[in-house]
Amino acid sequence: MTTKIFVNLPVKDLDRAVAFYTQLGYSFNPRFTDQNATCMIVSDDIYVMLLVEPFFQGFTNKPISDAHKATEVLLCVSAESRAAVDALVDKAIAAGANSPNEAKDYGFMYQRGYEDLDGHVWEVMHMDPDAAGAP
């Protein structure tokens, strides 16, 4: 089995979060969905577990960060092209997200981001490996 990543994010309202991410084109695994959590499928190897805050709290002794006030993590996903970056971020904004920063163009990499309904920051980037040069 290849290594997969399961990111766990606390959400205040699971139905609201699911509706938001559905508008961005993500799907959910019904086998891992109930009133406390859902498994959002980002790709074949990336999953985001959206957990209502009381359920999330059961996995940690630390307080849950208010992502609207403090940055707990920056999530970054790649896109196939600059146009795909723009399309995803534009969908997020249309669905109620905020755009915390201007787009950044580094020549070899283009990046934009959004802050979801619970304040989690998602960066979306496209990198041209040929323009980036050899490592």
From TrEMBL:
Gene3D superfamilies: 2,3-Dihydroxybiphenyl 1,2-Dioxygenase, domain 1
Superkingdom per UniProt: Bacteria
Gene Ontology MF: a single term: dioxygenase activity
Keywords carried by this UniProt record: Dioxygenase, Oxidoreductase
Pfam family of the protein (one): Ble-like_N
InterPro entries: Glyas_Bleomycin-R_OHBP_Dase, Glyoxy/Ble-like_N
Domain Glyoxalase/Bleomycin resistance-like N-terminal span(s) in chain numbering: 5-42
Name of protein: Glyoxalase/bleomycin resistance/extradiol dioxygenase family protein
Organism name: Montanilutibacter psychrotolerans
